[in-house]
Amino acid sequence: MIPLIEKYRVSKFEDIKDQDEAIREVREFFDNFPKKKALILNGSVGTGKTSMAVALAKENGLELFELNASDLRNKSSLDEVLRPAIGQSSLFSKGKLILMDEADGITGSDRGGVVELIRLIDESSFPIVITANDIWGKKFSGLRKKCNIVNLKELDELAVKRILMGVLFKEKKEVKMDVLDHIVKHARGDVRAGLNDLQSVFDVGEEDFLSEISREKSESVFNVLKRVFQGPLDDRVVRAFDRTDVNLDEVLLWIEENIPLEYQGDALVRAYELLSKADLFKGRIYRQQYWRFLVYQSFFLSAGVSSASKNKNDKFVSYKRPSRILKIWLANQRNFKMKGVVEKYASLCHLSKKKANKDKWLLPFILEGVDERTKRRLDLDEKEEEYLKEKRVDMVVSGGLNRFGG
Ligand SMILES: Nc1ncnc2c1ncn2[C@@H]1O[C@H](COP(=O)(O)OP(=O)(O)O)[C@@H](O)[C@H]1O
Ligand SMILES: [Mg+2]
Known about the structure:
Bound molecules: adenosine-5'-diphosphate, magnesium ion
CATH superfamily of the largest domain: P-loop containing nucleotide triphosphate hydrolases
CATH class of the largest domain: Alpha Beta
Helix content: 55-70%
Order of helices and strands: HHEHEHHEHEHEHHHHHHHHHHHHHHH
């Protein structure tokens, strides 16, 4: 199944909502090319930056030529990739548009990448579009001078709502108004987040979606984030996670998601670097089961991320919920159902759980084949039965592969 954000990805200017000003400026850049050879589309996630680059290429019959940060890191690969693209303008009738998507990925430790990008702009005979969440960091100052900068705004609530309703209409689906409003509020101008939440509603149903959202106890998460981002760097920050019931892995996701709402420029880069240190320890903890490292993970997440910026403020920031949290919860929920089924099957047939687990892919067939009495003795509840039916094909494929080697 294609996720909604891909299925309904827009690729024409007329479908990009609530960005009229930016669209006008993008067209103007192209009309005046090569007065400025490159354009920066600057704006937060899910506001339509990539879509706009695609639309520009499409509207002008240009071939889109995509580069990434690692192409820049490698000089010879850049040359290889670009020589043909830069030179041969007349070889093919179709012109090219070079896209460097998500330039934030050119990290602080690789200033060389920015230098290469500037060289590319100087040498290219094709227009270049660069997208970024935040182009105002020091490392980009040289780059900014070479480019027109177009800012994309976060979409207002009505626009997000209209986009989501358009998708609902095409999908021939309905959701309750308060669920939709909830999604729209939560998206905060990020269409991607809105579409992903709508996807979750399709996947789990409205009821589970709402109950999961309230489970987050966003109040307490809110306080933790506020302490880390805005509090003075003292021992209360170090202990920031002690009293929350959100586990450390979830905290990591929350912090990752919200760093860009709190930090800009160099502080943003520093914060991500500290976050990646926390992530490193997380990896070691899981791989080596070395729980002592939890202290370090927690330290980099709290005091580390806090230290990324010295200018503390107490502005109100409405933090965003990371969409992955809902996905993780969903996966756990599924495992949970499966575990229940396997346990019941094990106890009915006097098998070890391990053996029963190996046979679980057969369960849908067993269920179809047995009489009502045995079925009752298996004592599955409705949800479990439904789940088995629904998962029938997946289970056969994965179970069969495990068993017979694939
Ligand atoms: N302004 C907009 N109007 C309509 N759809 C949008 C808009 N901005 C984003 N989307 C949709 O949201 C998803 C992500 O858009 P994308 O262009 O990748 O955002 P960005 O590159 O800014 O993160 C896509 O499915 C896209 O169709
Ligand atoms: Mg993008």
